[in-house]
């Protein structure tokens, strides 16, 4: 193991400590997640309605619509505008660790890992979740 201790998240990756291009911190990440999931819930309710599930036989695919719409928002917007609507609103963007376009498959794999939850809550010293590490991306400030 290396004895080098980094002073801030992203230092060993070559990112600045603060400002544009610095690694996105937890507050912005949570705010983006809340915005995205709230938007997905509003869209799901508008198009598929809201049901209070009193009986097990009433539960159906409708209860999973916010999660599915959340996934679609991630997959559509990361390659097109550089992040989900929530990311962009709070000033974050998803980039490739070594530059270039994120492509089409990375947002799909990244989103599937976010939906599973565990990879998204396990981070390294650079505050990159397993979902970002798996596809070679990093969430940075715009």
Automatic annotation (TrEMBL):
Q: Which domain of life is it from?
A: Bacteria
Mainly resides where?
membrane
Q: For the RDD domain, which residue ranges apply?
A: 25-135
Show the stretches that span the lipid bilayer.
30-50, 62-84, 104-123
Q: How does it sit in the membrane?
A: Multi-pass membrane protein
A Gene Ontology term for the protein's cellular component: plasma membrane
Q: Which UniProt keywords apply?
A: Cell membrane, Membrane, Transmembrane, Transmembrane helix
- Any keyword Cell membrane? yes
Q: Where in the cell is it found?
A: Cell membrane
Please identify the protein, giving its name as recorded: Putative RDD family membrane protein YckC
Q: Which organism is it from?
A: Microbacterium pseudoresistens
Taxonomy, top ranks, is: Bacteria, Bacillati, Actinomycetota, Actinomycetes, Micrococcales
């Amino acid at each position: 193991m290396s004895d080098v201790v980094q002073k801030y998240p992203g230092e060993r990756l070559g990112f600045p400590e603060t400002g544009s291009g610095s690694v996105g911190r937890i507050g912005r990440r949570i705010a983006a997640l809340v915005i995205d999931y709230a938007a997905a819930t509003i869209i799901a309710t508008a198009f598929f309605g809201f049901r209070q599930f009193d009986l097990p036989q009433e539960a159906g695919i409708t209860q999973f619509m916010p999660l599915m719409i959340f996934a679609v928002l991630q997959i559509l917007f990361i390659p097109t505008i550089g992040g989900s609507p929530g990311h962009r609103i709070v000033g974050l963007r998803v980039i490739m660790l070594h530059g270039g376009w994120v492509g089409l498959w990375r947002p799909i794999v990244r989103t599937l890992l976010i939906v599973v939850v565990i990879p998204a809550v396990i981070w390294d010293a650079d505050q990159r979740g397993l979902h970002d590490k798996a596809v070679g991306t990093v969430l940075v400030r715009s």
